[in-house]
Amino acid sequence: MSANINSVVTVFTNLFSNQGTTLLNTILIVTTIGGQSIIRKLTFTCPCAYPLNEIHSLIFMVGPSIALLIIGIMLNSTTWRLSHGCVFRHPKTRHSWKTTCYSWTEVIAQASVAPIAWLFVVFLDGGYFTCYRAAHFCMMEDAIQCKNATILAFYKTSANYDMMSDGGKYCPDCICHMGASDSAYIEAQSQIIAWGILIVYGLLAFASMCSIRMFDKYTMVQRQYVEMYKNEEKKNFDSVAKEYATKLSEANARAFFGHELWDKKDWDWVSGVPEINNPMLVRLKLIASEKAMRRYFTPLQIWNEQKGYTIPAPDINPQPMLSEMEEGNGIKNE
Question: Which residues are listed as membrane-spanning (predicted)?
Answer without folding.
Answer: 58-80, 101-124, 192-215
